[in-house]
Amino acid sequence: MSNDKVFTIKEGVTVTDEVVSIIAGLSATEVEGAVSLGGDLMPELISKAGAGKLSKGVRILRSEDDSVMVRLAVNIGYGYDIPKVCKAIQEKVKSGIESMTGIAVKEVDIKVASVAIAE
Questions:
Q1: The pTM is what?
Q2: Is 13 domain-assigned?
């Protein structure tokens, strides 16, 4: 893998780090209690804003062994068990990236950006 922005997942098939970020963002927003990503992008707004916006709150770091580390900021809904929601997000993001791309996920770090209070 010569380019830090491109992952070769099979011979002749590559994905960019932005694609991996989008998969991570979509996976994170599917978890109950995760109201939005750090950039306030909620699941119902993804189709309007475009999936490309999901990569804004997600950072993908490549390890020396070609696995990835994912960093993302999320807004958690008020009343949810924060550690439980974060654990579910970690599992969902890891399985989403690994199943769709075959890229090993070394770790998923979550920053709780805020607690969202329903209006």
A1: 0.81
A2: yes
